[in-house]
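INFO worker-7 received task bundle
INFO bundle size: 2
INFO processing item 0
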Amino acid sequence: MRREDDGGFAPRWRAILEARWRIRLQEVTELSMAYHGAASAGTGDRDARRLLRRAVVARQRLADTEDALGRVAAGVFGRCEQCGAPITETLLVAAPETRYCAGCSVFGAVPPGTGAARVPAALR
């Protein structure tokens, strides 16, 4: 896939992100249903906590994908939110939801990849 100079840049990424969104939505739904089933059945606090942790992470990934779709719609997808530089194609292919270029992610103390929130300590 080529960069912005190709008129198909945004539509291709939108299609990729929409496919990822559907997969992530299904994952969130399944994990939420499994958590509620485990919690209501009393199958074990440990199992319920594990499912809750996975559901929280899945919800964050879904939110990151939604944010990336918003950046595509706004015309800023593929640009670093911190410095405005283009994000490398390699990084976008590996993690399309990423918000930061490799330089800002390493030197700016921004978490690599999507910058997604991690599971809160209280849920561990």
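INFO item 0 finished
INFO processing item 1
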Amino acid sequence: MIKVKLTTKVDSDVLVVGLGSTSKKLQIESGAAQVDATSLLATLTAMGATGNADEVIKLPGKNTKLIVFTGLGKIESNYDPEVLRRAAGAAARELFGNKSAAFALPHKSVTEIAQLPKVHLLAPIALRNF
């Protein structure tokens, strides 16, 4: 049975955060989760990250084993729920074999965040079909 819960605390070995860009400058979108943005952005820039949709980059974390950056495209003040769903789905497909992951994506409403549990439930099905 898959459990889905919304929480403000990161209690997983894997943290998924958003990565977007504005004026060709990368920005980490991590909702309430605290990440060391300065050093992570330097690493991501050196790796050639773009923050484009469907881009997924994994790095070792300080407080978690793994930080997964999923592309959001252009930085927005309010993200369309479809953008968040697609970003979460791209990250979920890369997390096969992990027992759990904490998704800390930007959101300002229940409608935006409500898309994420659907991805979590469908990701294992999508992975079996490849």
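INFO item 1 finished
INFO post-check item 1: The CA atoms of residues 107 and 113 lie 6 Å apart.
INFO post-check item 1: Strands lie at 14-22, 25-29, 56-60, 66-74, 102-104.
INFO worker-7 idle
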